[in-house]
Amino acid sequence: MLHLKVGGVPEHFNYPWYITLKNKAYTKEGINLRWQDFPGGTGAMSKALREGSIDIAIVLTEGIIKDIIDGNPSKIIQTYVKSPLIWGIHVGAKSKFKSINDLENATVAISRYGSGSHLMAIVNAYNNGWDINKLQFKVVKNLQGGIDALTNGEADYFMWEHFTTKPLVDNGTFRRLGDCPTPWPCFVVAIRDEVLEKHPEEIKKVLEIINSCTADFKDIENIDETLAIRYEQQLEDIQEWLSITEWNDGKPITENLLTDIQNKMIGFNVISEKINSNRLIKIL
User: Fold this and answer.
1) Would you say the C-alpha torsion 97, 121, 60, 35 has a positive or negative sign?
2) C-beta neighbour count of 95 within 10 angstroms
3) pLDDT value, residue 45
4) CA angle 2, 192, 22 (to 5 degrees)
């Protein structure tokens, strides 16, 4: 039995992993797969990959590209969710800020440097024509840290996935001033090099199982109601999210796509250098 650990954010995107684990789909193939939640997001998962405490990560595309360039001994295997991630731009309920333009010189809460909340704050600043070098960051570790920082005034705004934070907008904890979609597919599957070298066939089997589940995910009976209850979301919000979310279709990720993403990241000043895209991916 091969033991593998997979990490991801505790959000609706990763419910297919819950389904396949509950069904013991991996155990039937001789793989003891264990899931670990990472509320801290991609920055925390990148660190866990480096340290070897997880083998597989469902991570934000921009975050893992940056971390592999910075020396993370892992590879991107495939796209997991190919549609963009919608990042909500939030301020505290009592904030003086009324529009995105008001945030130019404000302090942005981020989970950690190199995380999606950090990199997308840079993308948002670029989109609005702000001086990226003047951005001020406050590290808050996770969503709860963002809530605390905006509530007590340690930071002014916080970017997090639109639908995950929607209940906080509904209950008056946050006000959302707008959205910033990623200009690339949002989630990829990244795996440590050592695991890829030793167990390529088992990794292929894991991907076959999860891709089979995501292919039919929207057709699961009452999946919208299930997700709404599990993630404490309004049913109409889950239905909207399902309508705009597209998972991987089983095709391998291409060097051309990653080169295009790197070009955009260079343009956004999110990475300082570009590497050959074949160093970022492994085709099984």
Assistant:
1) negative
2) 19
3) 95
4) 45
What φ, ψ does residue 115 adopt, rounded to 5°?
-80, 170
**Domain boundaries for CATH 3.40.190.10 within the chain:** 2-83+184-279, 86-181
pLDDT of residue 208: 96
In the CATH scheme, what is the homologous superfamily, with its name and number, of domain 86-181? Periplasmic binding protein-like II (3.40.190.10)
pLDDT of residue 157: 98
Q: Which helix (H) or strand (E) holds 191?
A: strand 187-192
Q: What is the pLDDT of residue 270?
A: 85
140 close to 153: Cβ distance less than 8 angstroms: no
Amino acid at 150: L
Closest by alpha carbon to 176, among 148, 150, 210? 150
Q: Which two tokens stand for residue 250?
A: 């089983």
Give the whole-angstrom CA distance, residue 261 versus residue 266. Answer: 9
In terms of pTM, does the model score above 0.90? yes
| Weakly modelled stretches of the chain, pLDDT under 50 | none
User: In this predicted structure, what is the pLDDT of residue 212?
Assistant: 96
For residue 13, give the DSSP letter. G
Q: List all residues 6 or more positions away from 76 whose beta carbon is below 8 Å from its beta carbon.
A: 61, 64, 65, 68, 188, 189, 190, 253, 258, 280, 281, 282
**126 within 8 A of 57, measured Cβ to Cβ:** no
Instruction: Compute how many other C-beta atoms are within 10 angstroms of the C-beta atom of residue 252.
Output: 15
Distance CA 99, CA 102 (A): 5
State whether residue 7 is helix, strand or coil.
strand
Q: Which two tokens stand for residue 150?
A: 């905006």
What per-residue confidence (pLDDT) applies to 222?
Answer: 97
